[in-house]
Amino acid sequence: MSQNVLGTRADIAAVVLTAAGLVAAIMLHLLPALFACLLVHTLVHMLAPRMFGPKADPALARIGVVIVLTVIVVGLTAILVGGAAAAYRREGADLASLMQKMADIIDGARTTMPGWMQDALPANADALKNDAASWLRGHAGELRKAGGEVGRGIAYALIGMVIGALLAVREIAPARVQGPLALALQRCALLVEDSFSRVVLAQIRISALNTALTAIYLAGVLPAFGVHLPLTKTMIALTFVVGLLPIIGNLISNTVIVIISFSYSLPIAGASLLFLVIVHKLEYFINARIVGSRINASAWELLFAMLVMEAAFGLPGVIAAPVFYAYAKAELVARKLV
After folding, report:
1. Which of 172, 239, 244, 250 is 20–30 Å from 317 (CA)?
2. Is 172 exposed, middle or buried (0-12, 13-18, 19+ CB in 10 A)?
3. What is the tens place of the pLDDT at every residue in 190-225?
């Protein structure tokens, strides 16, 4: 095959280095940093001309967007920390009160439970407290590891956001003469960013669809049967916000909905779990269909990519699969190989 189709040696080297970097981002647990960097970089490019007009100085416009994004991130962090502190100070955050509430929920659900299930549940708040303490002692190492991973993920994401902002501002500086490999890597980076932005826009549509289905169930189906769950509006809003996270966001919202449903009754919790499991399984196909339309890929292609990435890297692979496959498809299309 001719060199014009495959590209120069610099192009080939850039593609290999880019692919190796994407795989390394997963293996080194740097996916939050990579996606946060791409998100901020994309937002700065997209919002600068819209917020300050096309005639504004590009450098000042991008710096202005970076300042706005920084204020938003700092503000949201302060709200979350303040909310957590306030919740901890409230009576409901007290461990004994929390255990008593959970025991009351279980006690209220006993009337609808079969005998074998009742025997497996704690009898009162003290028993529940002892069981919880035993479980925490037995899984302390796993909990510390999970907490450490979440903390590292948040820290990596914040660092990635800073890198994305710095890159967006630095691009305004006069460009020096670059070698062929640097130019080829720059082209690959732009393709990765374009693939990411397409997937993000598709994920917003997916989150909106999941939210609509959840709203129909919580605000339509359940009330039709005389069931009115508390915090319905909050759960619907939460479904959209966390739904912007591929796959894992659905799991978060599902967990909250099932817990709230369990506070009403066990049958309602079972019905909610069944509904959400069906929606969660359909999300793979919905994700493939909607994202595939944005990146010019068939649903089966994206499903296959998600399956392979999940087998290779677990949940991070599923999250990364749409972006990575979109980039791979764009490279093949650019070289007229597909």
Report:
1. 239
2. middle
3. 999 998 988 888 878 878 888 888 888 888 888 888
